[in-house]
TrEMBL record:
It holds the Pfam family Ribonuclease_T2. One of its GO terms (molecular function) is ribonuclease T2 activity. GO terms for biological process: RNA catabolic process. PANTHER family: RIBONUCLEASE T2. It comes from Sphenodon punctatus. This is Uncharacterized protein. Signal peptide: none annotated. Belongs to the RNase T2 family. One of its GO terms (cellular component) is extracellular region.
Amino acid sequence: HWEKHGTCAATVEPLNSQKKYFGKTLELYEKLDLNSCLLKVGIKPGNTSYQMTAIKEALTSVYGVTPKIQCLSPEEGEEVQTIGQIEFCLTKELTLRNCTDSNDSSYSGQKDLHFRTEELSVCNDTLTYYPAEVQFHK
């Protein structure tokens, strides 16, 4: 991940070494605590599916910003999409910002299924499965 994302992040002083970069990533992981925050508003990872609008509203209410959510399309004959990646976007000062704003900086939460990026697309406002064991990376 350092070669892919870290070399760009190195232009920002708090991220300008591998040690700082991964240290800040762990700090953000603990600060965002996605599963715990969503549990507080009734969104539970596992076998339950939710309307995507409810997940978006919950994330916005908890974090105060609009994240970018990408899904894996339903299997043929099924109706429920699966969240594959949730991105929280950051300013150069490393504060959360809306992902709808134009800037490429983001911090991703990706389900531990190793989806290829090309398999993911913007989620539809339909029934959505929120898988357990979300991992964060960047």
